[in-house]
Records
---
Amino acid sequence: MGGPQGSPGPGSCRLLLLLLLLLSPAQVLPQQCVWYGECGIASGDKRYNCAYDGPPIPLPEDGYDLIQELCPGLFFGNVSTCCDILQLQTLKNNLQLPLQFLSRCPSCFYNLINLFCELTCSPNQSEFLNVTSTVPYYDPISKENKSSITELQYFIGERFANDMYNACKDVEAPSSNVKALGLLCGKDVKDCNATNWIEYMFNKDNGQTPFSIIPIFSDAPVHGMNPMNNATKGCNESVDDSTGPCSCQDCSIVCGPKPQPPPLPVPWLLFGLDAVYIIMWISYMAFLLIFFALVFGVWCYRRRHFVSEYTPIDSNIAFSTNSHRDNGKITCGERLGERFENGLRMTFTSWGAFCVRNPRPVILFSVVFIAMCCSGFVYIKATTNPVDLWSAPSSQARKEKEYFDKHFGPFFRTEQLIVQAPNSHPDIYSPYPSGADVPFGPPLNKDILHQVLDLQDAIVNIAASFDNETVMLKDICVAPLAPYNNNCTILSVLNYFQNSHSVLDHTVGDEFFVYADYHTHFLYCVRAPASLNDTSLLHDPCLGTFGGPVFPWLVLGGYDGDNYNNATALIITFPVNNYYNDSKKLLKALSWEKEFINFLKNYDNPNLTISFSSERSIEDEINRESNSDVSTVVISYVVMFVYISIALGHIQSWGRLLVDSKISLGIAGILIVLSSVACSIGIFSYFGVPVTLIVIEVIPFLVLAIGVDNIFIIVQTLQRDERLEGETLDKQIGRVLGDVAPSMFLSSFSETVAFFLGTLSTMPAVRTFSLFAGMAVLIDFILQVTCFVSLLGLDIRRQERNRLDILCCIKGSEEMRGVQRSESILFLFFKNLYSPYLLKDWMRPIVIALFVGVLSFSTAVIHNVEIGLDQSLSMPDDSYVMDYFKQLGEYMHAGPPVYFVLEEGHNYTSLEGQNMVCGGTGCNNDSLVQQIFNAAEIGSYTRIGYAPSSWIDDYFDWVKPQSSCCRVYNTTGQFCNASVTDPSCTRCRPLTQEGKQRPQGEDFMTFLPMFLSDNPNPRCGKGVFYVFYEQYLTIVDDAIFNLCISLGSIFLVTAVLLGFEVWAAVVVTVTIAMIIVNMFGVMWLWGISLNAVSLVNLVMSCGIAVEFCSHVTRAFTVSTKGSRVERAEEALSHMGSSVFSGITLTKFGGIVVLAFSKSQIFKIFYFRMYLAMVLLGATHGLIFLPVLLSYIGPSVNKAKTRAAQERSRGTERERLLYF
């Protein structure tokens, strides 16, 4: 029978029981604490926690705000926790430092605070915390015996630890240029991982933790403990609806793969060699093949059609070599050219005769003119500032520098030492109790460090005198935290020891072992230079006495990789304040720097080798160099003066030595040249144009070359000329001047126009040089055809009267009637030997082949000329700065800082404006800071070595309500520094969802002054602690522009002044262009870089090249000989000797002296380039150009030929010219 209706049977009971078992929850362990409250002092203001093994205790309502702020995940139910309000306040204080560095990445800080909240307050502490050591404690307040926990184990899930580390590893510390974990991990960021980071945070030796917490990492239960393995947030995840993921700068997975530098340009190769080399080689071979084929073809044609094999190869067949008559039709162009030429000839003839007839008024007028121009010297201003010399006022870099200097002040002045220990040996440090031996470089020996500290202290105590005041380093140094901390910034390894002998000697150990000493502290500080407490037993800070970190790459040199302990040099830097518009303060700094230099020059310590430099050192040494080079320049000019004075005279006999010499005329000619330079400087000084060192050193050399050449042409042409029957002296000199002055006018005016057009350059040094040079050349020409011609007439009259040179009141012993026509040995050499030999048929092809080969070589290497100017070249050989530059290049591992400045007008108060600049959460991925950060990621390409320091990101971290940085007195509203302990100090912004957002609008500007006045301290690591050329970007463009302008102007002026001989102008321009290209070839061969100095020399070489080329070319165009070869021979014979003696020999003597200068810049950029300039100009003007003219020179101007015949008809000159 069944049971009673409605009663369950046994099967039903079993089924119900099974169902209840299935639906019932798993066993729930009772919540249990391991501590509650604080008891017992651990050290300083740090306290132990009290052991407690009971259930969690409801938190008083007074602690609700704190638990919501710190651990919102525990704010539920009756808010029962294993911590009291005091423990929560301690937790908040302890989290301030990591909060300031990690809260810029919300998910990172979320995971970190989760770790500490579970440790401090979790109601389930007993599951993952195991107390391993306690000490008894008597509570004087509650009168109870308690236990203080001195050690416990914290079981943490490996997944949680790794996820927390991965979310934080990329977070930047903007004010320190390093990763945040580099400051919070106790070691270099590259050595930091999840395990050792957590171990460091829980190690009581870090100076922050009151007792030892031993983390044990496992995802599985261990010894009955369930590791804390809460859920985490990745850095690419949002913590809540109001915050976004971490920024690209703080989370690499947000922005994708690391930026890669653009690939290096693929070298242009052909057959595995530089393509330019191959192309130029092929081009040269093709030219030789075509050229010699043409030469051979013409030679064969001549053998068939001409009787004499010596008839020149010349296309101008219509003009017979033996006939001076021409019945061809004269073109309009030829007639115009002849009239222009004749107009110049007649003008200069009349003018020359006038000057000779009226020497006194002309000379007086010239002297008055010179005096008036030179009176401008009272307004002279000199420019030595490199920025003013090399950077154009309108250039981007110049504008940015001036903007920076105006708004932030000029960059600080730098006084720097590089110290080595030549007599010390590497030291081996053996860590206790275990660890691999660590080598220490020679200067890191403790005795050496003590000696260096003595030196450093002596420099700090250097006293200088200025305006009856004593000036010391403390009066001028950079002290970034003043007035709270007036210590000077000293970037030195000794600041790891706070510049203290006692800290350097600090040792912990016993009578048997040394547990920690300066080795330990050094190894820690180079990994965490911003640390306030090292993890060794020393517990000494690493932060410098000035309140900032000392980065090892700034104070150590000669190490490999990141092994700073292997350093072989110490670098000590004293930043000194610079001043924008305060000359008195600047003069104070200069006076101290002078004593600094004198002190180190006289410092003697056999154990130390010191290289040093001050901010004023380079300018001082350049001035000393300039003074020492005065003698070199003077000797150079004296050599040229002596040569000119002697070479101008043509001695007929020993008896007439002092009569026929022209020493006084030579000196007068040189004085005219120098006067033209002085006039140029005086004129522009009137208009406030400052003079530069290049003007003073280069332009006299240039004008002397041009002026002396003209002097030799006038004098030697007159010496070779024979006075016509019935011709007076004034008419003879006028006629000679009419012959040669157009050539002088051609060269001088070409150079003047070329130089004046050079003022279009944007580079101030080139523009100033061009301005002064153009005016000096113009005035020199004017004085030569006026004053010098009058002086020449007076000198010829003296000679005709048989009066001695210089001592003109005394008559010579050997009488001679009149001044005899004479031809110098050099002229005869050019006429009878050199010119005929050079223009032989077999020689001319060789010359062309050789010069085109040199041109091809120079073209092939022109792209390999280096750009830049090694600043050591500006120093004398014996300068102490030379040794400093050498050591700087060998030991310094960091370059100068770079600043990115936003000009006024940007709206920082709007969210959009902030996102365009900042680099933290919510900022644009292409913001300014993010772009700079990306550039730093590829530092090998961009040369930006470290992540940017960003004040706006620090400001956002500083103003957060969770931080203790931004506080105000609730009574006055004034700023309350984080180091102040006062209950009336309250946070600036409320701990609400809105308060946690970035400040905008008025809020942004309200708190900004507080941030700018705050200084970093242990409770608030944020605050303002930011310690604070272009010519090489544009030099290639400047060089191309200036040289093309010069060549273009030379072509135009030459074409006009040669009587519209366009083809002749082309030949001259091509030859000058070849000289310039070959100058680049010489620069490559001789290791001369392209910079502003060499560019000025290249522009000058255009002017010198005109002198070498224009005179010969004009002589060729006015020659009436029948063939091109004969015309080239005549031009070379008459002008070659004057050009050779006037420029080549004159300059060669002066240049050789420059080789003995102490100045490297003189040896390289003046001696080498001037020598190349003269040799290339002489070889092209006196070898290549005549040969080129003999092949492709312009045809004879028939109008000029007939005019010359008419002028010479019935004279001895006709017989000489045409028979």
---
Amino acid sequence: MEEPPPAKRPKIVRGDDDYMPGNILEIELSKFMTFDKFKCKPGPRLNLVVGPNGSGKSSLVCAIALGLCGEPQLLGRATSVGAYVKRGEESGSIKITLRGNSKDEVIVITRKINTNNKSEYLLNGNIVPRTNVAEAVKRFNIQVNNLTQFLPQDRVCEFAKLTPVQLLEETEKAVGDPQLPEQHRALVDKSFVLKSIEVSMERHKGTLNQLKQQNAELEKDVERVRLRDEILAKADTMKKKLPWLDYDSKKAQYLEAKQRENNAAKAMEEAAKLLNDLKEPIKKQKEEQAVLDGKWKKVDTHINENFQKRAEHLANADQLDVELQGKYKAMQNLRKEEETRQKDLERIRKELAAAELELENLGPSDPGRQEEMKRLRAEISDIDYEANQVLKPRISHVESEIRRKMESLNTCKERMKGMDNKVTKYLDVLRDAGTGKIFEAYNWVQEHHKIFKKEVYGPVLVEVNVQDRGHAAYLEGQAAQYIWKSFITQDPDDRDLLVKNLKCFDVPVLNYTGDVDQRRGTFGIRNDMRALGIYSRLDQVFDAPIAVKEVLIRQFNLDNSYIGSKVTDERADEVPKLGIYNLWTPENHYVWSKSKYGSHMSAVVEQVGVPKFIENSSNAGENEKLKSQERDLEASIATLDDDAKRSRDKQKFLFNKSAELRRKREEISKLFQEEKEKRAGILRRIEKKRDELKSLEEPIDRDAEIAKFVDLANNLNIQRFRNAMKLKELLIECVAYRRSFIEKRISSIEFDAKIRKLEADLKQHEGVAIQATMQFQNFEKETESCQQQLKKSKNIAESIAPLTPELENEFHKMPTTIEDLNTAIRETIYEARSIFTLNNNALEEYEDRRQKIEELAAKLAAEEEEHGRSNTEIEEIKDKWLPALRNLVAQINETFSRNFQEMAVAGEVSLDERDKEYGQYGICIKVKFRQNGKLEVLSAHHQSGGERSVSTIVYLLSLQDLTNVPFRVVDEINQGMDQINERKMFQQLVRAATKPNTPQCFLLTPKLLPNLQYSEACSILTVMNGPWIRQPTDSNLSTLYGRKVNHMVLSAVPWGKPNVEGTTSRCM
């Protein structure tokens, strides 16, 4: 079932608020192209967007296209949406408000874009897919990709290059019935299909005739081929019997193998029966042998147990013997100990008497030695106190002070080294900037600094320190470049000497007289300055020696140059009111000056550059301070070293004296200690001997101990006798077990010999049985192999020729042996080969062509049917499309011709019809701009650029009465027109805007001619750039335009500053 045709576009009717459904009510941009913020409310009819080139008019066109689901490619600018985000920003947004079907209904479409080429769509504040927004746009027939509705500046040339065919396609999309482009496309597609069918039919007819003619020529050869094929078929039938004869042969072999297998099976069964008869007696003999084995093994267990018992008793006998010998030895030791005790008593009595005599001869100790030791101890204590408690802390303090001074000295040297590295870096910068011999000049001044009367500074770049990098950029921008390589003296003679010696190095020399500028006021920031973001003055943001700083201030007026913030940048026009005429901000440098011929101010604004010379560095003059500090530290360290050396020498002397006294005290103490230790040793020896004597004199009963050992020895002898009797009984028992074991073991061996004999006989019969089994297995394998070959032969025969009753009857008529059958086959083949044909493949070619003839005939019939159906469909569509299109072009031509007549020129629009070549149909525009000329087709060869622009805008105006689009956008179409054509074009636009149902129109232009005729249907939107744009007033608008118009000023601040929101004002 065919789909119903799309409904015709409803005619758009203007409402009470003078707006039509789909008109743009408001456009709001954020961070889009040249705008930070932008908002405007277009009028319902003709909107003239006026502004200089680069002010952002085309940004408005881009916003409308992208905001209404357009792709970046249709604008002819960047190909990615991220390129439309304002430079320096990450994201932006477009917000377009469309009028709905009533004045109370609005559709708000928002598109958010970012530099990653991502988009997010919002419909009435809700996030939705792009398709939802596209459907809302399509609802009002908004076509931003149609050049007749939306013509951006970068695609004006594309419209002029449209061919008649392309112009017809764009016109069909923009105006008239929405079915027209669909019908046109259907006609083009179906006519292409129809041509393809016709070409295919002609080709198939020719091929069919050719195939029929070729088959007629082959009919005689086909008859001979068929006869030969019949004979060959008979030979093939004979060949089919060959595998069945082979099958019969294999079947006979299989039956013979099966008979041999059965005979072998009987022989194998007989051998197995005999083998079972021989195994039975062997089994019985083995069972009896197992009983005997159990008996002798049991006796063997008793023998092992008897052996264990005898071993235990033998071990017990050995133990008893050892214990008995121990008792005898203990009795001998008691007798020897008593003899030894008597000898020790006599010896100790003699040693005790000798020790008592030695103690008596030693005498009392000398008391004078103790007094001498006390005196030496006191003197040593006094010396140690002075050395450790007085001199040692003093030395430690001095050494600590020396270490601290050394650390300061090292730090000072490191800082001086760092300063030298920074100086080298600055000198490299000056050399790279063009002062090639700055190193030589600096080294000369450093080597000869002693010959100057006063301090010489330079180069200035080395002496200046700026803590903030931004301030460094201001100072470099304020001061001339020559100053950074200059040297500064403080005495005229030093200046002359320096000029004479540095002349060859090409460096300036300046002399500072030392006078202070009395007119310079005290630095201070007033409240009104602080309110504008001014926070400092240029002479306060750097450090330098006084001479260097004064030269910079006087040379470059630093004390009158102020520094502000970004707030100051935004309110820069208020700064001159504070009496400040030189201002630095993070981005710009402002210099104001008063005119000599009036009171008005002029300003020069430059962008702040990047500092090339100055970087963050140490304090000015710090190098000299560090050198002075180094000299002071070295002198202080030398003094402390002398003091420490004297203290260490005195401490060493005291230590030596204390050591001598200690040596003397040690000698006296050693003598006293030796005497004391000798006396104590003698006393200890006497005490020890007395204790030993007392211990030896205690009485001991040796006879009782010996009697005790005798009783223990008698008990051990009794136990030995009992153990020997038990061993005798175990030996008798062991002999009986041995005799029984031998008897039973011999009986088992006799049974084993009988079993081996029976097993030998069994093994001999097993060989016969195995041979019978192997023979059976071989015959079984042979039978299985014959069976497999039989099955294979049958499968081959059935695959070649399945046996049917008819085929079996034919086989009975043929030879019954393979040799005879092969002979008959060869004879039949020779008979077939004797039939001669010119073309052996004639039959195959004939049948193949016959099949192709049938297929082509079927295809040709189907194509004829399809051709008739397609032709009918084309005629039906053409009957609907062509009259409607002719009527549409006639209406466009009527309006186009009338508009050209009103401009005192001539023009017409016609439909270029090409019969059934529907893809070549087009709209032909012919114009005439001269009285004596003739109508010429609109092209770059016949008309100028301005004439083509006029023709384009008139053609677009001619579509307005027929179009059902809510608005149209044309960007700078008047460029290239002369004043006459531009004025005519404008009057046509104004006249069209006053018609009842004319769509909303946006015309962008950088200028308008003076004294143009406006109407209340016109709205003028002015886009201007600049930091001091004045707001429009009623009086100046009335003076400018001379009649009542709707006017909106859209101000854009340069360098990306926030835009001033447009406000609508009525001018009388």
